[in-house]
Amino acid sequence: MVQQVTRGIKISVITKYEGSFYKDYKIQYAFEYTITIENQSKDSVQLNARHWEILDALNNLETVTGEGVIGKKPVLKPGESHTYTSGCLLTSPFGAMQGFYSMVNFTTTKKFKVIIPTFKLSAPFAIN
């Protein structure tokens, strides 16, 4: 598990290898990640968007930007948390992801970024 706190918002990430399969004559490695976003600040906040940089061992970089997480824009009061699970496909048995969430503080109405720490994606048989 990796964790990081930015402006009182704690991000925790757990990953899991799901297996491999062929798609368009190329092998794909499937990974699952579960993220918990915990509001340790004194203000209510809302997650509005996400930005991901996904890198595999072959130096293929994929950038993903979008609204919310899994179709939701959670509002977190102080002490509350939101957990969700998602996944990604890589063309190699290991890689990494990093990024940030765009959030708004309801008390100050200011937007801010919360860093998603870099986390590794690794198939158990891969040596990296």
Which labels suit this protein?
mainly beta; Immunoglobulin-like; five-stranded antiparallel beta sheet; Co2+/Mg2+ efflux protein ApaG; elongated; four-stranded antiparallel beta sheet; 9 strands
Rg value: 16 Å
Q: Which structural class is indicated by helix and strand composition?
A: mainly beta
Query: What is the CATH first-level class name?
Result: Mainly Beta
The biggest sheet, with number of strands, parallel, antiparallel or mixed sense and barrel status, is: 5 strands, antiparallel
Q: What is the CATH superfamily label?
A: ApaG domain
Assigned CATH architecture: Sandwich
| Percent in strands | over 45%
CATH topology title: Immunoglobulin-like
Globular, elongated, flat, extended or rod-shaped: what is the shape? elongated
Approximately how much helix is present in the residues?
Answer: under 10%
Total strands: the figure is 9
Note the total helix count: 0
Number of domains: 1
Extract low-pLDDT stretches: none
User: Secondary-structure element sequence?
Assistant: EEEEEEEEE
Please state the average pLDDT score. Answer: 95
N-to-C terminal Cα separation, in Å? 17 Å
Domain ApaG: 3-128
Protein name: Co2+/Mg2+ efflux protein ApaG
